[in-house]
């Protein structure tokens, strides 16, 4: 895995309704934040052009589109995404979809992340969706499939990060959403952890959305999280 600048470990999720809102947030956060996630909400509001502008300004971009479709579609979609200069792109961790994405990426620098189980899901949600077994078992199976498929990393909750490191090895990236600084509301996230706990569990990047973008002082919160990451890495 490439060397990580400490600031790149924090990925701020720009889950905002308009590009204008996202532009304003990036301005507010300034040079303290170097990495942003552009997800589906913003994607359908002109977010792809915005992502290109972020790239051109020297920011790293996590394009969170969670591809899942027939093999041919996933392959060609990934081919096009690979030309955009993004840093990360997500694929749902189904073996055929992951293999198709890897084929589409080719030798490009884009890093493909396999989404294991969404952090908004708990054991009851998994059972309601028709899956047997526990979340931990499903995440582990999908992480192993991602490694075999040649993916560059996985997305899992911080609760599973430590166990997944043993499965994917040191060379694959582990990205953890569901990060909530102490005192923050969990919202619709069910498998959460503090920045310190996630880093100590082995996460490489922490995705933080609402605790930053909904704060009265987003830059102060981002800087606090970065300080917490730095302290966790030093111990």
Automatic annotation (TrEMBL):
Catalytic machinery residues: 64 (for ompdecase activity), 66 (proton donor), 66 (for ompdecase activity), 69 (for ompdecase activity)
GO BP annotation list: 'de novo' pyrimidine nucleobase biosynthetic process; 'de novo' UMP biosynthetic process
Broad EC category: lyase
Pathway(s) the chain acts in: Pyrimidine metabolism; UMP biosynthesis via de novo pathway; UMP from orotate: step 2/2
Gene Ontology CC annotations of this record: cytosol
Protein residues bound to substrate: 15, 37, 64-73, 119, 180, 189, 209-210
Keywords on record: Decarboxylase, Lyase, Pyrimidine biosynthesis
InterPro entries: Aldolase_TIM (IPR013785), OMPdecase (IPR014732), OMPdecase_AS (IPR018089), OMPdecase_bac (IPR047596), OMPdeCOase_dom (IPR001754), RibuloseP-bd_barrel (IPR011060)
Domain Orotidine 5'-phosphate decarboxylase: 9-225
Reaction(s) this enzyme catalyzes, per UniProt: orotidine 5'-phosphate + H(+) = UMP + CO2
Function in brief: Catalyzes the decarboxylation of orotidine 5'-monophosphate (OMP) to uridine 5'-monophosphate (UMP).
Full protein name: Orotidine 5'-phosphate decarboxylase
Organism: Kaistia soli DSM 19436
Organism classification: Bacteria, Pseudomonadati, Pseudomonadota, Alphaproteobacteria, Hyphomicrobiales
């Amino acid at each position: 895995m490439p060397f990580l600048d400490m600031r790149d470990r924090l990925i701020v999720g720009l889950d905002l309704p308009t590009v204008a809102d996202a532009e304003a947030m990036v301005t507010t956060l300034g040079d303290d934040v170097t990495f942003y996630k552009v997800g589906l909400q913003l994607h359908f509001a002109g977010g792809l052009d915005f992502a290109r502008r972020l790239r051109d300004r020297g920011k790293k971009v996590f394009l969170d589109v969670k591809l899942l479709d027939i093999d041919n579609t996933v392959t060609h979609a990934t081919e096009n995404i690979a030309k955009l200069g993004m840093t990360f792109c997500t694929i749902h961790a189904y073996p055929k979809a992951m293999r198709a994405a890897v084929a589409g990426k080719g030798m490009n620098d884009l890093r493909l992340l396999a989404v294991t189980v969404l952090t908004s899901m708990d054991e009851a949600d998994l059972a309601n969706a028709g899956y047997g077994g526990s979340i931990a078992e499903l995440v582990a199976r999908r992480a192993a499939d991602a490694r075999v498929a040649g993916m560059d990393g996985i997305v899992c909750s911080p609760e599973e990060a430590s166990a997944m490191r043993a499965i994917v090895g040191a060379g694959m990236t582990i990205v953890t959403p569901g990060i909530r600084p102490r005192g923050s509301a969990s919202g619709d996230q069910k498998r959460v952890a503090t920045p310190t706990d996630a880093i100590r569990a082995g996460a490489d990047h922490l995705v933080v959305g609402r605790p930053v973008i909904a704060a009265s002082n987003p830059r102060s919160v981002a800087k606090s999280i970065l300080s917490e990451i730095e302290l966790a890495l030093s111990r």
